[in-house]
Design a protein that fits this description.
Number of helices: 35
Radius of gyration: 34 Å
Strand content: 15-25%
Largest sheet: 11 strands, mixed
Low-confidence stretches: 772-776, 939-947
Helix content: 25-40%
């Protein structure tokens, strides 16, 4: 080999000869043949490693070189620098200890560098998880490598220096290394951290490749050489500061706090007490100059508290914060509310970093809070055990004056519990200290077969309120010396020892073990009986039966039976199947049509589809679960289908059935075949959508805008269109008429059920659906509900209505300020209740405009959304209210809502007329008259006969 394309520098580490052979093997196995492995050894390298290096050189003398440095010991940076100086390749890559170089990594890097003329080429990498069994890539890599690209400024790929992205998985042009004098810091163990940003800031062109280059990087250990990590971070910060990149500097500081220090805090429950004390002492020495106060205050509350206590060297406080991080929503430390109304961690400290008001714990009562019950002592003496602990209490709540408590052990994944009373409770200002003794062998009597794991918890009661808390414990609190004898109901042969342990979720549990000969023998026999050949065959048979049972329940089989058999059945005259939003609720226009049918006494057999829970559906009506056999049977025999979203696309409509599609809203975003996602589908998918739409016999529209958009987007013929408006909006016309005649107060029974006060105005926040096809997901709202409550809690009550395909994740707020109404079935009732609507692109704005009440559009991503999803008109041009892009703009509008709304009354009226011209308050009656005309005439004839 003359001049290799890539030189891979390998510095052996603690893995020894085995790791060295593996690393060199990855290099020699590259699909790019012109690659050399440069092994750099220290003079005091182990003889086995030196022998392995020699053998590798003899096996491939042209591709493996061995170099020995002059200085013994030192950090790996010394040997890496020697490798950089001795490298002959066009590009140089440094491979870390134990890292696996992907087979096509060098080819990918070399070809990209040659094509782009970049001096630095970087790709993705993964690292092993804590136990070394799995791999994962850093969560920020997707943002760094959304696609392959070339950048010339660090601001175009900020993760290169904000995160430790260039610790591996990249190569440098050797000429650039020499030109810029790039070398690792030989006085630093973590020298790879500052080397990458220094190289990225020196070169002119950086190529980013959306390919994995390195895998199996060693698991992150934030506690190893904390001082060295902090020093490496400081050097990167000095580099960014020297180049005037203050924005990246702030991002780097925040990322270091989250990726390194918060990660270190999380590990505290798994560390021995001595190690926790050592780390806290080191942190107190090296962190005070490395945690900028403005950056620290941008962290979430519990993360902020953990970093502050680590900076102070408070090992026990950091342990408490770690429990709160690992079990979100748990009150892990005493909380004290000051005169200013702010709630602070452990009380009495005015440090703003310890302000945890936004967690909202102060708004919950004793029985509603998840309190940390920390086990401080566990001692076993034969069958008797002594447990001591402390239950944390915030200063605003607690049990009554004479509480009682009991410890319970609950079988894992079951309902059986055994318990015994807590003999001593001592309450003070910040919590309850407790002590309990019990004879486990007498109190805890499992069966001994499938009930071998038991979780501990404590129940505190005061006659009115009950609080249940797990027993948190450090992982080194219990060990083998704390075993106790066990007495299972099946005898000692089923198990003989209770072994306490701390789970991955940091709470105490007991495990029934077999330590003596009878129990061990029994378990061996049971294992043999369940694993020898007949037993294995029996298990395989049971699995096969289970698969057949699942196939009988599968949708594919149901669709086949529906088409082959159910569609042959005669239609049952007068049967109507109603469905709203794919069975998730009893509401919208199908409900309005159903209620009109019932009001007029039509002789129809009404059936409602539900998906999940029956709650909220009318008790007196027939209900069928969506996709059940009864559901398919009913659809196949129904004379009418009525829904607002679409019955399952795979199901053909029976001959003789009339399908009324009420639809669920006018269109701002592109729909149907106008939608980019649909246009990108293959022909069979588009054909299936077209066949599903062709099932419609009637399609409701509320304006000519719907005809131009929805009807055209779904290719609906003119004969299917009913220009009646939406039946669901009839209640809005009734509400507007009632407001004009009687006023809006009092609000009515729904407001009473929701606990709304008449002195506060009601603001409904109803954002649109932002996901795609798939399961229902919980998403964080774009509007900060906690900030809204803090700003307007005395003036407004915020009702949050998530899209029916999503769920809102809401913070804890003061009572009466924020109410989640996502589970309320009928949106029309909420619209009639609201004084103001906040939305973005949801079709709910077209309905609410009929009430002639203020509408505020909160659309931070309006331009991005319109570009990605597409829209039918310019929202800013036709908006029925102010369009805001930030929370500050939204809050400014709400502060002066009356004055701002005055300027939009004419625009709102024009908006309602353009998009709801056919809504006149009689849509339900008109739809029933048209669709169910035959049954209306029969009713009339019956009435005449009776007279």
């Amino acid at each position: 080999m003359n001049i290799p394309d890539v030189s891979c520098v390998i510095t052996p580490g603690p893995g020894g000869a085995t790791a060295l052979r593996a690393s060199v093997g990855f290099v020699l196995g590259q699909s790019l043949r012109a690659v050399e492995a440069l092994v750099v050894l220290a003079p005091d390298t182990d003889d086995a490693v030196r022998a392995a290096a020699g053998a590798l050189t003899e096996g491939a003398p042209e591709r493996v070189r061995v170099l020995t440095t002059e200085t013994p010991g030192g950090f790996a940076a010394v040997r890496r620098n020697a490798g950089l100086s001795a490298a002959r390749g066009t590009y140089v890559l440094v491979l870390g200890e134990g890292e696996r170089l992907q087979r096509h990594a060098c080819r990918t890097l070399w070809e990209t560098g040659e094509r782009t003329r970049a001096d630095l080429v970087a790709g993705g990498w993964t690292r092993l998880t804590g136990d070394g069994a799995k791999e994962q890539e850093p969560p920020w890599q997707h943002a760094l490598f959304p696609r392959s690209r070339v950048v010339s400024r660090l601001t175009d790929a900020s993760e290169l220096v904000v995160r430790d992205a260039l610790v591996t998985g990249f190569c440098l042009r050797r000429e650039a290394v020499e030109r810029h004098g790039l070398r690792y810091d030989e006085d630093l163990e973590h020298s790879e951290i500052p080397f990458g940003p220094r190289a990225a800031s020196a070169v002119r062109r950086i190529a980013l490749v959306r390919r994995r280059i390195v895998s199996e990087r060693a698991p992150a250990d934030p506690g190893r050489d904390l001082a060295g990590l902090v020093e490496a971070h400081r050097r990167v910060c000095h580099l960014l500061e020297a180049q005037g990149l203050t924005g990246l500097l702030e991002e780097r500081e925040r990322a270091f706090l989250l990726d390194r220090l918060v990660a270190l805090v999380r590990t505290f429950p798994t560390l021995p007490a001595a190690e926790r004390e050592r780390l806290a002492a080191t942190a107190a020495r090296v962190l005070p100059e490395s945690v900028p106060e403005p950056v620290l205050l941008t962290l979430p509350p519990v993360e902020r508290v953990g970093v502050r206590l680590l900076e102070r060297g408070d090992a026990d406080g950091v342990l408490t914060a770690a429990y709160a991080l690992r079990r979100r929503g748990t009150v892990a430390a005493p909380l004290v509310q000051g005169r200013d109304g702010r709630v602070r961690w452990q009380g009495g400290d005015e440090d703003p970093a310890l302000d945890v008001t936004e967690l909202g714990h102060q708004h919950r009562a004793f029985g509603e809070l998840r309190l940390m019950n920390r086990l401080t002592r566990y001692e076993a003496d034969g069958g008797r055990v002594l447990l001591e602990g402390r239950l944390v209490l915030p200063d605003h709540t607690g049990p009554g004056p004479a509480p009682t408590a009991r410890l319970e052990f609950r079988v894992r994944d079951g309902a059986r519990t055994f318990g015994f009373p807590v003999e001593e409770l001592r309450r003070d200002a910040t919590g309850i200290s407790w002590r309990a003794r019990a004879d486990l062998s007498r109190v805890l009597r499992p069966l001994g077969t499938r009930d071998t794991l038991w979780d501990a918890r404590m129940v505190v009661e005061d006659g009115r309120v009950r609080s249940v808390s797990d027993l948190f414990a450090a992982h080194d609190l219990v060990g083998p010396e704390d075993r106790s004898p066990a007495r299972p109901r099946l005898g000692r042969a089923a198990g003989d020892t209770w072994q306490p342990y701390v789970t991955l979720k940091d709470h105490l549990a007991l495990r029934l073990e077999a330590r003596h000969r009878p129990a061990r023998t029994t378990r061996r026999l049971v294992h043999y009986a369940t694993h020898f050949r007949p037993a294995r065959r029996a298990r395989l048979l049971l699995r096969a039966l289970g698969r057949r049972r699942d196939r009988l329940r599968s949708r594919g089989l149901k669709v086949s039976v529906y088409h082959s058999w159910f569609l042959r059945l005669p239609v049952r005259r007068g049967t109507v199947v109603f469905e709203s939003h794919m069975g998730t609720c009893y509401g919208d226009s199908p409900r309005a049509v159903h209620e009109e049918v019932r009001r007029r006494g039509l002789p129809l057999r009404c059936v409602w589809s539900y998906d999940g829970s029956r709650e909220g559906f009318p008790a007196g009506e027939r209900l069928v679960r969506r996709w059940s056999w009864r559901y398919l049977w009913t659809l196949a025999r129904a004379e009418y289908w009525v829904d607002n979203q679409g019955f399952p696309q795979h199901l053909r409509k029976p001959t003789g059935t009339t399908y009324l599609q009420t639809w669920h809203g006018s269109a701002y975003k592109r729909m149907g075949f106008d939608e980019r996602r649909v246009r990108m589908q293959n022909a069979p998918q588009r054909e299936r959508l077209q066949q599903a739409v062709h099932r419609f016999d009637h399609f409701l529209v509320r304006s000519e805008h719907d005809v131009r958009t929805l009807a055209r987007a779904y290719r609906l013929p003119e004969r299917t269109l009913l220009r009646t408006g939406y039946p669901r909006n009839d209640v809005l016309f009734a509400a507007r008429t009632r407001d004009e005649a009687e006023g809006r107060l009092p609000r009515g029974p729904l407001a009473e059920r929701l606990g709304l006060d008449d002195h506060r105005q009601v603001v409904l926040y109803a954002p649109t659906f932002r996901g795609g096809p798939g399961r229902r997901k919980r998403r964080r709202l774009l509007l900060d509900a906690a900030r809204f409550a803090e700003r307007f809690g005395d003036r407004y009550t915020l009702l949050v209505r998530a899209h029916y395909l999503e769920a809102a994740s809401l913070p804890v707020c003061p009572p009466g300020t924020v109410v989640d109404v996502s589970g309320h079935h009928d949106t029309g009732e909420l619209l009639a209740l609201a004084d103001v609507l906040i939305t973005d692109y949801s079709s709910i704005m077209f309905d609410y405009a009929l009430l002639d009440r203020p509408i505020v559009l909160f659309a931070p991503d309006l331009d991005t959304y319109a570009a990605e999803r597409g829209s039918y008109f310019d929202l800013r041009e036709k908006a029925p209210g102010p369009v805001t892009a930030t929370e500050d703009e939204l809050f400014a509008v709400l502060d002066s809502l009356k004055a701002v709304d005055t300027g939009f009354r004419a625009a709102r009226a024009a908006f309602a007329e353009e998009f709801g011209g056919y809504d006149r308050g009689d849509a339900a009656r008109a739809v029933v008259d048209t669709v169910f005309a035959r049954h209306l005439s029969r009713t009339t004839r019956t009435g005449e006969d009776r007279r």
